[in-house]
Structures
1.
Amino acid sequence: MTSAPSRTVRIGVLGGGTVAAPVVGLLRERAADLAVQAGARLEVVAVAVADVAKQRPDAVPGALVTGDATAVVADPTVDVVVELIGGVDVAGPLVRAALEAGKPVVTANKALLASPEGARLRSLARSRGVDLLYEAAVAGAIPLVRALRQSLTGERIVRVMGIVNGTTNYLLTKMDEGDEPYEAVLAEAQRLGLAERDPTADVAGYDAAAKAAILAGVAFGYDVSVDQVHCEGITSIEQPDVAFARRSGHVIKLLAVVERLGVGSVSVRVHPTLVSRHHPLAGVRDAFNAVFVEGEAAGELMLYGQGAGGLPTASAVVGDVIDAARNLLSGTTAPTPERSPVHLEPLEGLRSRYYVRLDVEDRPGVLGAVATAFGHHGVSISSMEQETPERLADEEGAAGRDAAGMARLLFVTHEATTGDVVATLDDLGGVPGVVRVANAVRILPWGRG
Amino acid sequence: MTSAPSRTVRIGVLGGGTVAAPVVGLLRERAADLAVQAGARLEVVAVAVADVAKQRPDAVPGALVTGDATAVVADPTVDVVVELIGGVDVAGPLVRAALEAGKPVVTANKALLASPEGARLRSLARSRGVDLLYEAAVAGAIPLVRALRQSLTGERIVRVMGIVNGTTNYLLTKMDEGDEPYEAVLAEAQRLGLAERDPTADVAGYDAAAKAAILAGVAFGYDVSVDQVHCEGITSIEQPDVAFARRSGHVIKLLAVVERLGVGSVSVRVHPTLVSRHHPLAGVRDAFNAVFVEGEAAGELMLYGQGAGGLPTASAVVGDVIDAARNLLSGTTAPTPERSPVHLEPLEGLRSRYYVRLDVEDRPGVLGAVATAFGHHGVSISSMEQETPERLADEEGAAGRDAAGMARLLFVTHEATTGDVVATLDDLGGVPGVVRVANAVRILPWGRG
């Protein structure tokens, strides 16, 4: 029915890792279908890798492999550059060279995009009228960047909240499902390859912070770099927190939040959050990602899917390659509104309800002193539960019995500023009888049942 | 920071209803922002309505209102036509005239798009190189059409399953939450304006069927019209079905399903379905819509949001208007792969597990005869529950006591073809002691948890 297109767009792939191989595979195996979509034959002409001697999957023909990424970018027969190296130092100059040569770049490199150099590269691409596309950099296969850049282009977005790190969502899901402690589920995730041997980038929230920075740009048109993002990870979350969340109708999620607070003023942050089980984000389980978008006219939207993995990520990269090819042939680019300067609102003034957990000595007077500390900073208590030694021993066996003479206090506050809550927690650490300020987690407001 | 664009794109709006007013309102109130996005000032120059005398919201200035839609389409100063009249007879010729005049058309008209004329209009738009955009026609504010048309353009889509009718999803949610019978929740929905006085188009599945037809085109590139869609509504769903779903870990949803079965062969259908509570579609409550997409490379994706309502739908329309304006200025169109001929697979051969509910006389021998009927057609029973008169009376009070001498049989079958299940149900109607074949509902396979 459809005649083969006469034109060819030549693709240079930089990187030979877990995403590059399925990208090359999809571009070659699905060539006929993709040619119809792109309006041109998409031909992979080179795959630049760090180690040419290394064994490659069959999807990557040896004849295409080269060790010279700079030459691939400079090659005048390469029309589109796909950067899958990752990181800033090596990938940055290559992306810059491609854009300066007027070549569209498709990348999945969140570190680069969330760096100060990322902002400069976006600006360069815009001024040169060249595509810099990065659907795969946030939430993998989920068509989020295009939705925000194009579908919701007429929409005034109020807030974007994402579960954008699959590893931490897997860990939190397993803690919620199985009553197992953090260390046990982390070990299991490492065994399954769902967490790195050094899980810091995931569990400390750094990966999510880079994605939050990119989301701020895509949703609001602000250049934010990862080091400007307030970041709390999940390492403080323990089984008592998960259990409290469950019995109060919540689930704990690590959220990347980008929120418009006023003209040119946004809050960009990553932190664990108690989310109502009726909220659509609560149903996002295991290693899945989702991004919840609130628009003034569109209302609530959520996009859900696989946030990582070679093939899903490759799917997003190939979608961008098709776009880049189409735009190249028609002499246009994807919409890239000019970026504006931004004021990042400090966290101190943000208001939220909080869940607070304290370990205290089980003796008279402690609760009163604790309540006084809350009151001193104007943080009003909405509810309190005390778990006594007996109950801890019943629930937690040996661990509970070790805690003889201790009690656990679980508070939910009314809405208060982060500044006041942080000051309260600081004071609580010095209240006689308070053994440990174990945790303080924000509670997401949610109007519906 | 951003200079005002010098060009103007003139918009003619057809229709003065619940979507037209917020469309005009957004285009006028947000003119400055939208001009940046579109690269041109978007000016509404006319709003054609059926009754010019009728009072309009303030968003629609009286000076723009006209009764002559044909003149708006023909007006050489109108660059883009936004069709929000709905239906086929009036809207169809207007959309045709606009496309023939080379004017991009943005429409939310699912009836037109799912009609045979819709296929001809898409073909006309493609051959003329003019945009025909309809993001708002399926799932309201959810950026689904663009995701399928653009983001997933490189993706081989296997299946699309949507909750695309807010009214029925609201009814099923309330039945699940509140133990109330269908009639009561329908009456309440009508009181709240969430169901029409004559709810047939929604509850019989016709609205969802039109959207399924459009999805078949967007996801697979096949022209399917609404009368080719197999359609079962929710009117047979009663409280015992909802209760069984709940205690078996499911929730009943009305799904529009578009599934690739082979080259050029798809199944397009609408029917109630038992969905595992762990499936992301199960968490889509109230009047919300969601579409679950399975791609070969991308894996599972879901897009969730408001499927109806003036403002959310208007948001999608305005997104399309911006696209149309951008494309018009750059001389391109949105990607519209050529449509292919399709073989619609008859339902008979499709395999599924089924839930079946029978009302029978509570006497020996009936169960045996029923089981024999299943066996006769090779439909294997996976589980059976019998609810006796005592239990019915306990559970259902007066209604249960009226059923003295009756029992309820609830079966779950192993996977069987629709043809065999339908033949079994036909036979069961004639089995002595079977009072009523009350329901038979497909069960969605779901591998996880």
Note: Chain A touches chain B through 63 residues (CB under 8 Å).
2.
Amino acid sequence: MKTVLIKEDILSRNNERAAEVRELTAKRKIFYINVMSSPGAGKTTLLTKVIPLLAGKYRIGVIEADIDSDKDALEIERATGVKTIQMHTGGACHITCQMSFEALEALGTEGLDVVFLENIGNLVCPAEFDTGADMNLVLLSVPEGDDKPLKYPLMFEVASCVVLTKLDVAHIFDFDPERALANVRKRNGKAEVFSVCAKTGEGVGALVSCLEGRIGEKLG
Amino acid sequence: MKTVLIKEDILSRNNERAAEVRELTAKRKIFYINVMSSPGAGKTTLLTKVIPLLAGKYRIGVIEADIDSDKDALEIERATGVKTIQMHTGGACHITCQMSFEALEALGTEGLDVVFLENIGNLVCPAEFDTGADMNLVLLSVPEGDDKPLKYPLMFEVASCVVLTKLDVAHIFDFDPERALANVRKRNGKAEVFSVCAKTGEGVGALVSCLEGRIGEKLG
């Protein structure tokens, strides 16, 4: 019981700080996207496909959060050439708003229009901590199974946009995109849902159009 | 800083209770296995293959932990017929020792030799909380990528046994079992590592032999 109270206290302090992040990104005219999923669902690969399609129109930065290793930041830099920093959480399973604020400052938002935050691969805890982002982009990969919205409800409740990834192997894993969509809908009636295969590029264009729409709403 | 201290306090209280769980399982002559992985790595499917091979020799029980849904407990019961309970964590991202203790009592350990605890699908938090189990069985599925031990170090440090799953799709995902093993070894010099395809049954026999050896060491 005590543990729950402590957690609520941490969460309420976190969510107060989210307003500060939103003030910062409003003042600096930045659209800030929080990318979340299980480990290995394809967050980094998706970013390497989405960023080049946005880069003609917007100046982009990326914050890569990991418990350890610099692999993802190096991969993003190599594939896209955009400004990227690697953030290590010191074992933490999620990004708090404090970390989010500090990461934006460390990245340096001068001259940027869009910042992606690749959160820790975890389908539970990151959903509890508002990072102050304008949008929560949640990936669900085919090999994980189309039942995941039933088992990890909060992540799909907080999603602004759900991207089903690795669609090229749906037949191997008996993953039904319609069933996945129905399960997402049990948690969230509003999120836009996209089916993507980042490897072949299939479906990436529709997702990019959606992002451009959202970015345009904020930045004009 | 305060958050870290609270966490340490929760962890130290948790780990004190782990001794109580170990006393309980010693007294009742039960071998207790904590199964951990990312969401959708194949914990339930692996259990449906492993349990029938152990069931001729040992009386088995299963605790299924999920944030929501009863899907996994129903699947285990249907596929194996062993005594199973579904535990809901009320949003929690891991099983504490208190939950572990209560779940063993709720399952009822009378007449059982081996109990499997299928933890929440999460490659971060469950590794921090000792459940009092005799063995941590950690799954890494091919679609997640062979780099995961680099990015989620603690989970692979606490593993007694690492099972690489979904090996039948290794060629599709450019997953190298040798590289995965080398990455596990950077975190853990002692864990036994197995390659398995639960769908075809390949490699399950070797894992079961290992489990029988460990069970025999405790139960005689």
Note: Chain B is about 45% helix and 20% strand.
3.
Amino acid sequence: MAKRKLRGGMVGGGVGAFIGPVHRMAATLDGEAEFVAGAFSRDAAKSRKSGEELGLDPSRVYPTYQVMAEKEAKLPADQRIDFVSIVVPNNGHFPASKLFLEAGINVICDKPMTTTLADARTLQKIVRKSGKVFALTHNYTGYPMVKQARHMVSTGKLGKINKVVVEYPQGWMSGMIDNPGNSIGMWRMDPEIAGGSCCMGDLGTHAENLVRYITGLEIDEVCAELTAFVKGNRLEDDGNVLVRYKGGARGILYASQISAGEENCLSIRVYGTKMGLEWRQEDPNYLIAKNPDGTQTRFSKGNNNLCKDAQDAARLIWGHPDGYIEAFANIYREAFKGIRAVNAGKKPPACDHPTADDGLVGVAFIDALLASSKSKSKWTRMKT
Amino acid sequence: MAKRKLRGGMVGGGVGAFIGPVHRMAATLDGEAEFVAGAFSRDAAKSRKSGEELGLDPSRVYPTYQVMAEKEAKLPADQRIDFVSIVVPNNGHFPASKLFLEAGINVICDKPMTTTLADARTLQKIVRKSGKVFALTHNYTGYPMVKQARHMVSTGKLGKINKVVVEYPQGWMSGMIDNPGNSIGMWRMDPEIAGGSCCMGDLGTHAENLVRYITGLEIDEVCAELTAFVKGNRLEDDGNVLVRYKGGARGILYASQISAGEENCLSIRVYGTKMGLEWRQEDPNYLIAKNPDGTQTRFSKGNNNLCKDAQDAARLIWGHPDGYIEAFANIYREAFKGIRAVNAGKKPPACDHPTADDGLVGVAFIDALLASSKSKSKWTRMKT
Amino acid sequence: MAKRKLRGGMVGGGVGAFIGPVHRMAATLDGEAEFVAGAFSRDAAKSRKSGEELGLDPSRVYPTYQVMAEKEAKLPADQRIDFVSIVVPNNGHFPASKLFLEAGINVICDKPMTTTLADARTLQKIVRKSGKVFALTHNYTGYPMVKQARHMVSTGKLGKINKVVVEYPQGWMSGMIDNPGNSIGMWRMDPEIAGGSCCMGDLGTHAENLVRYITGLEIDEVCAELTAFVKGNRLEDDGNVLVRYKGGARGILYASQISAGEENCLSIRVYGTKMGLEWRQEDPNYLIAKNPDGTQTRFSKGNNNLCKDAQDAARLIWGHPDGYIEAFANIYREAFKGIRAVNAGKKPPACDHPTADDGLVGVAFIDALLASSKSKSKWTRMKT
Amino acid sequence: MAKRKLRGGMVGGGVGAFIGPVHRMAATLDGEAEFVAGAFSRDAAKSRKSGEELGLDPSRVYPTYQVMAEKEAKLPADQRIDFVSIVVPNNGHFPASKLFLEAGINVICDKPMTTTLADARTLQKIVRKSGKVFALTHNYTGYPMVKQARHMVSTGKLGKINKVVVEYPQGWMSGMIDNPGNSIGMWRMDPEIAGGSCCMGDLGTHAENLVRYITGLEIDEVCAELTAFVKGNRLEDDGNVLVRYKGGARGILYASQISAGEENCLSIRVYGTKMGLEWRQEDPNYLIAKNPDGTQTRFSKGNNNLCKDAQDAARLIWGHPDGYIEAFANIYREAFKGIRAVNAGKKPPACDHPTADDGLVGVAFIDALLASSKSKSKWTRMKT
């Protein structure tokens, strides 16, 4: 029998947004789900128009997500949405997630999970209590070669990990530095909306998550310098961090929005006693293993020599590039496994997608960075 | 108003096939279409099972495509499929395309278009007469940076084109060369199914199409050597071609299935009097312009400095890699534009997807290669 | 008239050493100099044997550099060496340089210049007083494309520099981490010989020098964590540094000897308000400019579009790779310009090679790193 | 005992020439030789001036190479040159080589060896009879990683070779195509001086030599199209060749001087039944092995895991790039081994440098290309 399509709703992500369409393409790529409901904008008219353009039944397009949660929860089980994708700015993540989880609806949520550590702790508890799936879209862990990297670390190919360098430079704000009149006025720079961090919340948390996903290393202490280069920026647009991982590994982690000419250049290098690894998001279908004898081995997506997770995560065979959407879709695919289990009356199983636990670590990471930065880069212990 | 989803059918591409899921993901990526019918296999039971797994209404899953064409044509307009995707081996392309076109149904078809030049000419006429859309999935032309390359040539950035080097090596058959017992027995090597060519029909036609798409150059004469290295191969698994383009440009075109260790390494280099260009399918989001002053300019997908076609073809902004599926989806998106026009009673407009005219050139190209090869690599004029 | 060949002597660098032959090849590459004297080892017999293998007149092969300085100084001007290359371990740099300078002989010396800041200050004064040339072999600044990078910064192409990331990972010690019995016993790890730092003295100073050469930025404060991963290592084999440059730029600088599988991967990325730049020592003939519009421009060695310094520093035209020796030879070539001027009775002119001033900064940099590290990574002001 | 420095003479290569300084740097890089004599130009005054700038004894600077050969031959053995480097345009190679060999002087000569096949055959015989060393500077075979490639083929790592793609595009003439007034008037385009071929003599012979050096494959037949794109060019500036090697391998070989934006992009890909290999001259310190399982292994210069020849050919360890000069110097180093043996009264040993036998093959290759091209690309057997 065919699996029935899961029904999804969306909060935010109206037409014109960047991340809304990404979620829609990712969630539906495998034909496993369709979006049937949404509250696409705080502006009810805009929301209606977005629903219309997406071909939704107008009765399922809501003026606010609060109304949506209430109404959807009351629908019969065979009509009600199975999950909601929350793609609003940061400060909406917590209340919307809370509401839908408490309404009994599974949640896929953008990162960072919340804007405060207290909220993150609360949400983690709500998720645990809810018996529902909560997936956080640290989408870069969906790439097949990231899974291969994790596999190589966990099976001991690298020996003991001693050093990790993770970088996430973007450059799109660099042109604004010289143009103070060019008030960017984006929500990312508004502490009321973004929380206490811009660059590190947006990019740095992806970097932290990627390190932890691949290596399993947990941060002990951070020493951070956060800088706002763009005049008028109320939050940092660049952050450099020294990291001490539990167990003795040392690391560098940086993220930037003012690195002129960089696009979305997340990369990671992991060095163990036996081998080094390198992966770059902008060339995602390859993983470089650096061998101590001076050779490098390039693994490539879609081959049988990869671990099972990497093979399963590839939508196409060797030489046929998978991209960002396919990786993002892998987060959804794993969440859908969990949702189907929950629908079948089971507890949410452990699936290969970021969870509220990861979300809490991410927010704790931001918190530690902010504390270190405020203390003039004192080493600061990370506390979840 | 939302555009209604177009209804698609599929011939071939049952579960387990490589190209079937690619078509399904590509056709539905933008939420513009859904598959509602299919004849997925010559084996009616397999077809049924595939339909089931895809969640199709069993009444729309047919034992043969002939039945499918007949039954679908009789359905009311608001149920009938808008298009059929034909993804069977080569010898099925012509009869299936003919049947559906004559039944008034738009066709998206895999390449090469037919197995004989006569059939290609016939099909071109049928398409013209039908008033329907016929799109051939030379999918590599769907990549944004290929469109940028075409733009740079057509706007004169390269000056007059003098040389084109296009290569399409794969290596998956290389291990078979030494293992004669390893009879591959694939349809690609069966002249009854594949037509007169294996490697050049499968890969070489993509290369020819890519050159023509980017440069507009038309082949005048070819001088080809086709070789079957794998013991037992009845058709060539490697082909090297010298090309004379109309207007004086010269070229090299080769394709291979025995180039050990290569994956899907289609690449093109175009040299004009003012600039050279290079694009590689395995790193598709970049285009290299080689300037005579010794600099190279790397253009990358998703930026505002690209031509409109390249911008429109990108699903994501800079630094967020688009892959094979997204490029493939661009072929469908253009075909859908045409289909919506036809549905609205118009003549099929000129859209940016390969057509029956391209298909005819591709088959003529194969024909010329075979003739040249048989004559011990005599220069042979290509005739459509 | 042909320029006469300058006569060189060497301290250290006997047969079997790594850096001795590099100096010999670099100094003689252009036919401007020849080595005629040396004290190649602390072991007089080894020194003699090295001199023999190099074809030197035995009367010019000395048992110690002290004897060498004394004897060479007494030779008639038309026989005496014009310069000495000091290629012994770190702790020999200061006394040997002092001795030869005071004997009136120009010095080319390996880095770091001295093992203590006090010595560095003293040597800087000795150099100034001597009227002789003192060149420090921060050889990486000899690469043509490094000169092009400097030119692009100094002519404002990048706008204001905001961020610099410089990395220098090597991996040759990584295999030793797990093998404590494998006591490496190298001089680099002996504080008596190497000074207070291993990795940062050996590699980190190159990184610091490269940043300063290209950008002109001066370090204000550093925040460093230095780690000895290899059991038994008395000095650090890995160092991560946050940097505050005067004027507001921020940076990351790291060096490592335990980054498994890395060879000699010095690289630098400089980000200004208008452009980013990237250069990698392992691919030295190219410089990447990252433009805010999403294009990257690759400049390559040996082309007319480069600045004069970059053109002059290239020994071969485009497409003919210059390597490490050629870059090293550029340091010598500039030193030779100075030596010829001094020989002609002039004051040492400003030539394009690292000087005692650079050497002092390098030692001050190490000093600041050690101080910061000892204080648990407190921000520490760098003082020359 | 130190080896005495070999004494060299040079024919051609006066100051301002490109290749003269390359030979001088390459020959003297290891301190094994020095140039003491020369006939640097057909213009005696220019020759004198070049000798002066090089610091040569005026009595050893000759107005013509004929005078040079005569005079040098009469010098006492301990003054006479040990070898002559012939770096004049093509038509000078034969008479000068002949003259010096017959005067008992070893010869290092630029390629192509002669301008006619008859001369090549004659010179091969003269060399054999002379008992002297004759080395042809197909310098690209001097790169360490080319030697590693040869080793991997010869030890069976690739299995049976089936396909070879070798490319040598340059672009420096591309700008001339549109400027007919821009008469280039270079000797390379003058059949009286260059012989029957420009591009293939200059670049194509390197490509042929590289294939043979790495694979040992010998050409059976060629099918060539040679084109002069630049208006006024009397010889071809672009050539595309299909190749049949003895034993069944097939190949593509092309060279070009009109490939806009290419610098000196010699590259080779070799495909066997078990593995593929790729090497690029512009990135010469790496060799890529393409494995059938979808991994690629990058070997890099200066590591212990390479074959002995590759290790010996590296002047510097891993991560310290060797360049064009170092590779060129390896040709000289091997020739010097032979010359020292000859000086010691032995027969010229088999050393790892191209010989007159290679030179003859190169000229025969050009001859076959010209014959094939004239016959409208008929397959033409290559005859030495």
Note: Residues 6-140+328-355 of chain C form a domain with the Rossmann fold fold (CATH 3.40.50.720).
